[in-house]
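Let us begin with a simple case.
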Amino acid sequence: MKRVFFYILVVTQLFACASVDPVAKKEGAAIGSVDTQRVLAVKNWQLLGRLSIRSEKESWIAILNWQHDESLDNLVLSTSVGGVIAKLKYSSSAVFLSDAKGVEREISDQELQGLLGYAPPLSHLKFWARGVGNPQLALQLKEVSKADSRVFEQDGWLVTLSKFRQEGELRLPKKVFIQKDGVKIKLVVDKWLV
């Protein structure tokens, strides 16, 4: 049961959903303002990929199916052979978890933080997964040696985006690495549906 809650925490970190302002603030996600504005203007999207999390206490890997619209994120975490580990529904006001047996309950941010031992960046990850910073906060760009990578620090988290590919009019990352205080989150996107 603890592992299910850990999966939930990780997923909610990556998929906090709130209404997205289509225009980034000048101090916010200025990693190529044209790309940022295009990415933030897309209100409905889906990604299929793999998620891994490593902390001092645990590490695990799951298959991820994330469907996002303006009001709700639907996330399904599965094993490599297709068994559902957990399902999450997340809106700006609540996170609901369904376990492998289909039992759904609301999970608070404090409960998730208590299970993981760190404060998850819930409000940022929906942006970082798409290759932009949270437009509500300043970010610090880092110098990178690879042309197809972007690295920045935001709210104390180091975010590395790489292997960008064109999806229609958008350039979206295939790999997202996030780390802070011994917590390492890796998202590999196998398919974007935008």
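The second case is a distinct protein. As before, the sequence precedes its structure tokens.
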Amino acid sequence: MTADLKARLKRKGVRFVPNTREQAAAWNRKSMPDMIPEHNDTHHIDWTEIDPRSAKETYTGQAALRVPDRSNPQYKLYWPIRHGMFNEQDYEDKGQLLRDFCIIIGDALRYQVGLSDRRDRAQYGCVFVVPDLYEKNYIITITELLFREFGFGRICFIQESLSASFGAGTTTCCVVDIGAQKTSICCIDEGMCVENSRINLKYGGADVSEAFVKMMLGSSFPYSDIALSRRHNLLVRDELKQRCCTLGYVDLAQGSQFYELYVRAHGEDTRFYKFKAYDEVMLAVMVCYRSGNHED
């Protein structure tokens, strides 16, 4: 990947600065965090407060990601949807998978839409967006859940790329959807999905985050605990990707760049890190592309 990046930079007329990655790693090894008390942190995180006497059985959405690791009682994160489909690989019991799915949709209907009473839903129709590439059993299962569990009066299914084209007001286009766990591509022609153009690649933004973290750990990243499976590190990884990763060639011509990171953990003071990175900011994004002799 580094060789491919050097070739790209050469075609763009950008000079690849040698030994810059090693110099950035040497600087990172000496970097120490600054501690910021919570009352001085203007962007502190509102963690989900858990009372052992009235703790909920489940939490969904952002509230689930912000449950402290040392909460009482303890909670475990579940992901019933992965790569845009049911996550049957991480569930041993399909019944539990469907229950978790219903809990997430039910909370969204109650708190986001305002449909808390099941009897009111019979007056509504439901438009459910499905992947461009879907299985028949997936549609059958969703249909049963929407009618029996949620009580909708009418159901309409629409493919995700087709719904995106309708939202954009065009009937002919190519839709590229880059998500956290999948990248889907589909061509729309006169309001119909072109069957042979549908592609579902099982990688996305989350893989970029993971690749960037691993590369930075190889460059003596000062926050070495980021590799541990703590919940707040999920938020830290996404923030790193958004702040640092780029496909801009001009930045590399100036050598390594300074970046900042705030680590906020429940019950701990905020840690403020400064670190340097060079080509890692581009190499992490390049994991989504095939290397080879091709023109940009």
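The chain is about 35% helix and 20% strand. The chain has two domains: 2-46+204-288, 84-201.
Keep these points in mind for the review questions at the end of the chapter.
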